[in-house]
Specification:
single chain; 189 residues; alpha/beta; seven-stranded mixed β-sheet; 5 helices; 27% strand
């Protein structure tokens, strides 16, 4: 598949997602949760991955559909549309609905990757979101990913734009246990 031209600004993929996307197996399937217009779908489709995006906005999905399969669903009040399905990677950015956290983590296939980045406690001091319902508490993302191996985790303040975040890059151990510990390359700082 031909790689798409780079995108800058609000349509650009998250730097966290870009930094850790090398953890995905070649041609891994990707689920983008709360995908919006598909900025991460575009990133992964441009790298040869089959991508599925889910969002409740039909308008946003009309754009995201250019990059892969889309599913219109309100995952906050409706059923999880991927019950029993797993993906080589699950990507979530700027989204938190605690009732779906277990479903999101369960959607990571053995050997698969979870890339999750969202707002954390403290963000109420710099902007929106500010309601505790939409802000991770200290260590909450790590706890939600207890069945995965954390390759990288951050919990802190970012200056541009000003925000408090928690983010994790984690892998689900493969079904067949390797004799040696898996090697997940840590990319530069």
């Amino acid at each position: 598949m031909k790689e798409l031209a780079p995108v800058h600004g609000p349509s650009a993929p998250s730097e966290w997602v870009v930094r850790w996307s090398h953890l995905l197996a070649p041609e891994a399937t990707v689920l983008d949760v709360a995908c919006g217009a598909g900025r991460h779908m575009r990133w992964f489709a441009g790298r040869g991955h089959a991508v599925t995006g889910v969002d409740r906005s039909a308008e946003a999905l009309a754009t995201a559909g250019a990059f892969g399969r889309t599913v219109e669903a309100d995952i906050e009040s409706g059923a999880w549309p991927f019950a029993g399905q797993v993906f080589g990677a699950v990507v979530v950015t700027n989204y938190l609905w605690r009732a779906r956290m277990a479903d999101i983590v369960a959607a990571v296939a053995p050997g698969g990757v979870l890339l999750y980045e969202t707002f954390a406690a403290g963000n109420e001091s710099v902007g929106k979101p500010s309601r505790p319902d939409f802000l991770l508490q200290p260590g909450e993302l790590l706890a939600a990913c207890a069945g995965l191996r954390a390759v990288a985790y951050e919990d802190g303040f970012m200056a541009e734009p000003a925000r408090f975040v928690q983010r994790i890059a984690a892998v689900r151990p493969a079904l067949e246990a390797a004799a040696a510990a898996p090697r997940h390359l840590l990319k530069g700082n």
